[in-house]
Structures are given as structure tokens and as C-alpha cells.
Amino acid sequence: MNALQPWSAERAMTIVADNRHLRGALLPILHALQEEFGYIDEEAIPLLAAELNLSRADVYGVVSFYHEFRREKPGRHIIKVCRAEACQSMGANALVDHIKKQLQVDFHGTTADGSFTLEQVFCLGNCALSPAVMIDEQLHGRVTPERFDALAAEARTAPHAHPHAHPPGHGAHSHKGHAQ
Amino acid sequence: MSGHLITVYVPRDAAALSVGADAVAAAIRTEASSRGLPLRIVRNGSRGMLYLETLVEVETPEGRVAYGPVTPADAPGLFDAGFLTGGEHALGHGLTEEIPYFKKQERLTFARCGIIDPLSVEDYRAHGGFRGLENALAMTQADIVKMVTDSGLRGRGGAGFPTGIKWNTVMQAKADEKFVCCNADEGDSGTFADRMIIEGDPFCLIEGMTIAAIAVGATSGYVYMRSEYPHATATLRHAIKLAYDEGWLGDNIHGTDRTFHLDVRVGAGAYICGEETAMLESLEGKRGMVRAKPPLPALEGLFGKPTVVNNVLSLCSVPIILDKGGEYYRDFGVGRSRGTLPFQLAGNIRQGGIVEKAFGVTLHELLYEFGGGTITGRPIRAVQVGGPLGAYLPPSQFDLPKDYEAFAAQEAMVGHGGIVVFDDSVDMAQQARFAMEFCVAESCGKCTPCRIGSTRGMETLDKIIAGKNVDANLELLADLCDVMVDGSLCAMGGMTPYPVRSAVKHFPEDFRKKSPAVRVTHIAAE
């Protein structure tokens, strides 16, 4: 995640304008807003309703349905810890307890110093190397409590959040041009 | 060897990255330059032997030689041992394709994964890529559908519906527009095959979708990705761009009058969007609420238009069928389960990874011959097959052949081929409770048995675990499970009882830990 920008209705309008040609544009727009601001601001709901010709209830319904969309500004780094069965079989529950204790937060909480927001996820697709944790967009496997502490310490001292996970040697290509 | 650049392969697969593949690649590059040894590093997909990641391979005249699991600290030692010419080293495994785990597989869908550079059209073509599409471009729609039907290919997402029959319905539907949607919302714990093939061979999916589009007369398509898979999403977007650049997507594909536009959409952490109608709602920009069927998506799907919805592995099986013919594919497998399935060994397993085998292989072979038992070294007590909605099976059932019908008879699912292993430290009452908890978190809320039933199920299991009225509550739980199975709109509520029932059936002692006294009186009363 790049450094997050403070909420700006003007900037949000630009994001809407960039994506409104997409069919079923609401989800891509919400993703783009969250990437820019780190969360979906309360003001975004009436703004999107007006721009996309939807009711506020429709927009609110979508934002609240999906676990991924946050309603509050997160910490500098997002920690996603997997709680699904494969990770459970390798001690994910104990890892979750450790992480909550170390960071002094529960799920969806942000640490007092603003470094981390902790989220639970069900499956990161790294089930042969469980337990798995994702910090920003970097996936980690075989995460022991000690390894987690080292990864968190490393992230905490990083000036900004990790950059987006690009394929090695290639930039991540946005591909909106070919959409309908 | 003068002038010939040695090629070293270091995977870019997210699982490999999760154990430090980028750092390994950097260490090899640094060591090579400090020794003045020019080499070419290709970032390939994973070979699927995830227990060996980071698996480094070197191209030699005899074939590719494997070293793993490699850490950055191993780089100097590998150079000292002459690994660039296949030299012996403690981490060496000889020729990759002779490693028994790999050699005993039947790789059809994953034939190229881990071998090629995933973002090289040239490499893809050199390994048989786009031959199926070239054939399809010269065939009639009906002939393509017939070939897929003849292959016996069944949907790899879980339900196992014959792919060709679905395509035929869409092909025959009359509409001004049709769609092909790929369900890449691989949310089942213990599954990672979709992620791996998209990261390791993305053109295979693009080719499969394009063939599907030509077969049914669709002009647009979407891949519905998970937000938990940022690496796969980035790789697929890049591959789609390259496919457009080289004329394999877009208007007039390779000079023909066929058109197919493909775009990627990303979900937002809702498991239910792996259900096809919820996925369509989500693609339309709505809440992922399950639709009642009929109408079938094949007739009224995305934006109300006829739509093919297929899983990643189904679509990735299509190019080889069009390349080599339906009979070639059908010759693998047993009974009505034809072809191969990439099984995924996950959880507490010594040798986790992808094992692509024809249907009919037994769990025992997969768990012990490939998997090597648990990584903790303790006995396997239970495996969950087919994701969070699949049954827990005890070792007495490990001789079941993996095919759709044999598993359905046990309320187990072949599903997406995920197998999650637990050792004897597992508490099956807690696993049953988790199945209900997961349904509470992920139910779309449209139907009552799923929305309310899961909450009541979790509460009832809490009472059982606490030792309160265990017999009465187990009876209540059984009744609740019947209601959920019979009354839910989709598989979410309809199958959540499978792991619960199987845990109670095969591991009853775990549900009576706090109430041995109750059990004694109960038996005495009888």
C-alpha cells in the first residue's frame, strides 16, 4: 500500500470519473477509493449514490456486505492473519492469540501507535505452508510467533507501508482500457 | 559452454515468495556477479512441491536439476558446489522430473506450470500453448462443444456439473450478448490450485476462456479474482495485456472474425461469492446475495444474459482437450469422473503441494505416498476434504477412491480437490463449532436456515462443548443440520452440516469430554 491520502471528495470524484465506464462499476470504484484513502469514508456513500444513480441504501448495503471494505482509517500496515482450517491444523489459533497480545488489539483494531490494523481472513491460498499471514500485500508462510514478531518489528520501522506486490521484474499493469 | 548463458529458475509463486524466494533470487544474482559468472534468472511458477520451496532449478544438458528448500544463506554454498552445472549439494534432488513426488503425477492441467516463464507468450507457445485455440478458431461452435462434452470434463469448482452440457445450453440460447465468467474466488481452505496456475501459467486460463467464448458465441468475459490473491491478480492482468498486444484477445482474434474481451474483477473478502449466482451479483456491483435458480445462469446470468460460469481449473483443462481431443482426456480417470484433478495437500502434512492425478487415486496414496504423513510426526486423526463445507474423514475411510460418486456417498466432496490434514491433537468438537462459526460469518443472509441456523448451531455446540445437556443438544444439533441441508438456498447453508455431522459421527468422544458422567447415566438408563 502506498502512503494513504486524507479523504478528499474532489479526489474521490476523479476516481469515480476514471471508473464509471465499467459495467458493474461500484465494486471497482470502492476498491480504488480504499486503495487511495485506506477506507471508505462516510461521505463517499451519498457521493457514490448520486454519481452512479443508486440509492444510499444500495451503496451502504454493498460497503457493509464485504469484509474487505473498512469504514475507518487503518494503521500504516494491514496485517491479515488466516484463521481457516489448514492454518488451524498448524496452530493458527495460538498464533492469533499471540498476535493480539503482542499488538494489544482485537480484530479490526488499530494499534495505539497507528502502525498496524489487524484483520482476520479465511484462506490466503498458502495452505501447504501454514500458518499464513499477509502484511500489506506480502505473503508469509510457516509463521511462528517469533517470526511474526520479527516481521512486525521490520514493518514497524519501515518509513511507509510496503509498496504493492509487483510481479518480479514487471510493473503491475492496470488494465482498464480494455473494459467495455 | 562459451557464450551460452546458464538459466536458473527461481519461482515467483506467492507460496514461494512467502518463504523468501525474492531474497533467494537476489542472493543468487549477487553471488553470481561477485564471482563474475553471467547467468539468466527466470522467475517461473511453482512446480507444486511446496515443501521444497524455495525450489531453485538449473538448466543442464540432461534437464533441469533441483535444489531446495533454498534460503539466501545457501547461495554461496550452492555456487561452491557447482550447482550451475548440476553439482552435488545437500539440498540437491537431481533432475526435477525424476523426483518421485513429481514423476508419479499425471500433469495435464498443470503441464506447463513451473516450467515456463508465466509472462512469456513465446515460452507459452513453445510448450504447446494456443494450439487448442488455433484448432477452435477453425471449428464450428457445435463441434467445440461436442469435443468438450466427449472429454467428460466436469466442473472443478465443487458440484461437478458436465462442462460441455453447460456450454451447450449457452450456445443454444438466443441473445444479443453472452458472457463467459471465470470463478477464481478460490475461498476454500486447503485449496490453492487456482492461485498457482494463474501465477504459473496465466495464458492457459486466457486460452480456455477464449475457447469457451468462441464455442458459445460470447464476446465479453470476466475473471472474478479474490482480494486475498494480489500476486495472482497482478500476474493475470499483465498476461491479459500481453495477450491483447499479440492479438490473442480483442477484436478479430488472429485475423478471424471472432472477438473476445477479457477483464479482471476483484472480490472483497466474501466467501459466498464463490457461489456462482452470488459471484454474478458481485460482478454486477451488488451485494453478493445468492439468486434462486431457475433461471439458470446459462440462460439468465450476468446482467441477465446467457453466461458460462466455470471454475479456473475447468477452463484451464479446455486448451489441452482442444489440442489433443476429447478422447485423450477421457482416457484418464474412472467411472463418470474423467480426466485428472490437481489435488492439494495442505495443513499438517510433511510434503504439501499439488498432486495432479487421474480420478480414482485413494486418500491413502495421497496422504502417505505423496504427503509423507504429518509434519509434526504424529498420527493423522482426521482429514477434511473439499473445503470448509466438506466432511471430516477418519483413517478408516482413507481407502475411498477419489471420484465424485464415491465421495458423495459419504457426504464428502471431491470439490476443488483440497485435502486438509490434522494430527491427533485436533479437537473435533471445536472443528464442528468452527464450521458453524464460519457459516455465521459468511452467510449472505438471504435464507433463514443458513442465516439463523448457523448461529443456533454455534450456540448449541458451545453448550455441548461445555457439557450442558449433551444428549439433548446433540439431538437438537442433528435436527438443525437436517433443516439446514434440506432448507437452504445454496451449498453454504446446505453443506455446512457435512463437517459437523461427520465430526459427530466419526469422533463422538470429542463431544463428551466435559460430560462423562452424563454419558454413564444415559447408558445406565437404557
UniProtKB/TrEMBL annotation, chain A:
Keywords: 2Fe-2S, Iron, Iron-sulfur, Metal-binding. SUPFAM superfamilies: Thioredoxin-like (SSF52833). Residues 159-180 have a biased composition (Basic residues). Signal peptide: none annotated. The keyword Iron-sulfur applies. Its cofactor is [2Fe-2S] cluster. This is Formate dehydrogenase subunit gamma.
TrEMBL record, chain B:
CDD domains: TRX_Fd_FDH_beta. Its cofactor is FMN. PROSITE patterns: COMPLEX1_51K_1, COMPLEX1_51K_2. Residues 429-474 form the NADH-ubiquinone oxidoreductase 51kDa subunit iron-sulphur binding domain. It holds the Pfam family Complex1_51K. Coiled coil: none annotated. InterPro entries: NADH-UbQ_OxRdtase_51kDa_CS, Nuo51_FMN-bd, Nuo51_FMN-bd_sf, Nuop51_4Fe4S-bd, Nuop51_4Fe4S-bd_sf. Keywords: 4Fe-4S, Iron, Iron-sulfur, Metal-binding. It comes from the Bacteria. Gene3D superfamilies: 3.10.20.600, 6.10.250.1450, NADH-ubiquinone oxidoreductase 51kDa subunit, NADH-ubiquinone oxidoreductase 51kDa subunit, iron-sulphur binding domain. Belongs to the complex I 51 kDa subunit family. This is Formate dehydrogenase iron-sulfur subunit. It comes from Azospirillum picis.
